[in-house]
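User: Predict structure, ligand zinc ion.
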Amino acid sequence: MTTVKEFAAASGCSTAGLRPLNDQIVEILLASVNTAQETNLVPCDDIPLLEVTGNSTIPLLQPAARAALQQAIEHKNQPLSLKHALRTIAQQYVLREWVGTCGITSARTPGTSDHERGLAIDIHDDDAVWTHTLRSHGWMDVHGDPGHFHFVGDGINPDILAENVKSFQILWNRNNPNDLIDDDGVYGEHQTGPRLRISPIEGFPIVM
Ligand SMILES: [Zn+2]
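Assistant: Predicted complex:
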């Protein structure tokens, strides 16, 4: 077993190894936010001309963000290469640990990133080529974080970040009935942070 903390310390510069744990968190997340009544996260890898080129990409976005991204790509009519869209707190934690290495210039602390909201993308292409088009479709660039854009248009669900954090908390509790933590959707250093760091990147026995 490799823990998230050990994986981060190894600094392999790819979060692909987190895939089994990521998949478990995402499975719980999708079951909670996509219901018969509403759809809050949708695939974006079916957008024409969008190419998923990251080896750890979770190609999910909020529907309004996905629609605006598709319109931007249609407008420019050029391939866009996508590295990151949605992230779990496991991925966010590891990338934050790698800031200053691996070509990572910036990453927010877990539980605060627009990636965890399903409202951010990282693109491989020279962002200058895309900045104008993405801006005009509600996708804003951030100084000091090249290739990163976050969606600020209408139709955003503000609760997805908490649901994302909560999905890990639920996963932890299902597998650790003797060490239950609050499933409050808040990433804190007393409960969730320490459990995330000792979680297995290979995933837990119980998911749903
Ligand atoms: Zn980003």
